[in-house]
Design brief:
This protein is 40% helix and 9% strand. The chain contains nine helices and eight strands. Strands 2-1-3-4 form a four-stranded parallel β-sheet, sandwiched between helices. A two-stranded parallel sheet has the order 5-6. The chain has a two-stranded parallel ribbon with strand order 7-8. α6 links the parallel β5 and β6. It is found in: Cell envelope.
Length: 308
């Protein structure tokens, strides 16, 4: 955002890098003529890469690294410079990047204009930001991104639309795969327990019952009462497995396992480095979840193999 707000200018002064954001600076655009795009999350990074394809019209900079928790990520000075130097800035919105809100005001929030009727909410009115587990909502977000990229590089609009259409075919195949795999789990065993409430859209789309001791954000409090209530569900429903997430502390699930054990029950904690669920971030390069489709297939395969 070449004309970023006064707030960012103040932040640069505070961090000692004032002056780096000059729109005429040689670092402010790619030397090869590509358009500079900043994205907050790995999901958005994957979207831009898919849409851009072989056109290679954009130089994309990821702000929150793979494996980091966007709910609690604190922007660094280098991130602020990336934001200022960008021609386009995409962020997810719905308070997903909660601690970055003040520095994203000039960006494009891909989820803010979704129809409120399709968004998951809690009784307190808080909106669930984890829309990417609803494949149809993910398509809507990608369409928003494609429209903005086409406006920035209209000479590639036809290629971008073709890339998007082809990818939507892959997403339709993914949806069919998910439905087929979940059908392998007996109806009474389709109960997913994770550290925080990130899988509500998955629940609605594929008829899973989801529970978590923590709310939509990993910043929310985890009370002893919520831990105990979750343990009650495990015991009452005779749940075989509970799942760790790649961006959360595994101790929470281990604590649940200990409580269940103390009550005479057993439950398996699924969460080694290779089978933890991806929730708030895609995986690092080379991991099975380093793309959106790879992430989704990994999660579903892991859930099905441990609950069926």
């Amino acid at each position: 955002m070449k004309n970023i707000s006064l707030l960012l200018s103040a932040l640069f002064l505070i961090t000692g890098i004032a002056g780096c954001s000059n729109g005429n600076d040689s670092d402010a655009s790619s030397d090869d003529g590509r358009i500079d795009v900043a994205v907050t999350t790995t999901f958005l990074d994957d979207m831009v890469e898919i849409i851009d394809g072989n056109a290679d019209a954009f130089d994309t900079e990821l702000i929150i690294p793979a494996g980091e928790d966007p709910h609690v990520y604190q922007p660094k000075a280098s991130n602020l410079k990336t934001i200022v130097d960008s021609d386009l800035l995409f962020y997810q919105g719905l308070n997903f990047e909660g601690r970055m809100a003040d520095v994203l005001t000039d960006g494009i929030p891909v989820a803010e204009d979704f129809d409120s009727s399709v968004l998951e909410t809690q009784e307190e009115g808080e909106t669930d930001p984890h829309f990417w587990f609803n494949i149809e909502l993910y398509k809507q977000a990608m369409t928003i991104v494609e429209n903005e990229l086409s406006a920035a590089a209209p000479e590639h609009e036809e290629a971008f639309q073709s890339n998007l259409d082809n990818y939507f075919d892959e997403l339709d195949a993914l949806d069919a795969y998910v439905r087929e795999r979940i059908s392998e789990i007996p109806a009474e065993s389709r109960i997913l327990i994770t550290p925080h409430d990130a899988f509500g859209y998955l629940s609605t789309a594929y008829d899973l019952d989801v529970h978590a001791p923590q709310g939509f954000s990993t910043e929310s409090e985890v009370s002893n009462n919520m831990i105990s209530r979750t343990a009650d569900i495990i015991m009452e429903q005779n749940i075989k497995a509970i799942f760790v997430e790649t961006t959360t502390n595994p101790d929470q699930m281990k604590r649940l396992e200990e409580i269940v054990s103390s009550r005479g029950g057993t439950v398996n904690v699924v969460g080694s480095s290779k089978d933890a669920l991806y929730s708030d971030s895609l995986g690092e390069a080379g991991e099975p979840g380093d793309t959106y489709i790879g992430m989704y297939r990994h999660n579903i395969d892991t859930i099905v193999e441990n609950l069926k």
